[in-house]
Amino acid sequence: MQLKKIKMKQIVVIGLGGVGGYFGFKINQFNEQDNLLTINFVARNLTYEIVKNNGLTLLSPEHPNNNTRPNKIFQTISEIDKPDLVLICVKEYDLENVCHQLKQVISEKTIILPLMNGADIYERVKNIIHNNTILPACVYVASHIKEKGIVEHKGKAGKLIFGKDPARPTTGIDWIIQLMKDSKIDFDVKENPFIDIWTKFIFVASFGSVTAKHNSSIGIVCSDKFQKQEAIEIMKEVKLIADKKGIILPNDIIEKTFEKAMTFPPTTPTSLQLDIHVKKGHSELELFAGALIIYGKELNIKTPSTEKIYSELKELQ
User: Fold this and answer.
1) Closest CA to 152 of 271, 272, 276, 22
2) Contact 180/234 with Cβ under 8 angstroms?
3) Confidence of residue 316 (pLDDT cuts 50, 70, 90)
4) CATH class belonging to 195-316
5) What pTM, to 2 d.p., does this model score?
6) Out of 57, 153, 161, 273, which could bridge 211 as a Cys pair, Cβ 3.0 to 4.6 Å?
7) Residue 251 class from Cβ within 10 Å (0-12 exposed, 13-18 middle, 19+ buried)?
């Protein structure tokens, strides 16, 4: 199947940070060749002005031509009109606000693809946007905002993993799969993407919390006996919750998580650590530790290690 044979689709990317800037760039630059789709971005303030005037820049070895211009860029979600696909690429503390706004502008056929950290993103979107197809997903990409309107990507290609909405499994997503192929995005479509989502979550929740508490690094958590044990205790709680939810992670998931961590440069920080220690005011604390505590209460699973580090991080924040 080729996109040429599909009725022109409208795709909206909300948020042009490290994730939205990377994947939005790839989709839009593919579309610039034949303009078979309508690609619109949503960005705020200075990012909006820069991309409107200069286009979106991606500094990446994957793209010698590092600039792309969408069909339109909007400052507000209210300017969107019945898109076919929406990529939500915002910080988690903006998620509910974005979803409430989206409800006013989408059609019943709009598909939502949230590209965000966290184990509870699918549920949080579904709680607000009840009647649409939400594709559960997780991403791996080493990219960040270098300047407003300029995203820098290093290392290997970003990876996208997604699957069908378990509540609406008959929704056709073949055209989205073709779009990812045409845009040269590295992706996998999984029968049960929640296993991948929780596999990533066990890593980011544990390493994020411990590095934030000690203002350390991924390498130090792996090598320091005390910090490593703190991370292990959080991982155990994540595994118990995942098992209770019917998301069966491998028995050796803790060992494999540390093996994965050892592939990072030892001084690598985490996003939660950076957010807390630069005093941003907003952080991913609720996304990681907060969500675990809520799941624990809902499922009657004790989470003492997560609760302890959560309270310590709240004091630092």
Assistant:
1) 22
2) no
3) confident
4) mainly alpha
5) 0.91
6) 273
7) exposed
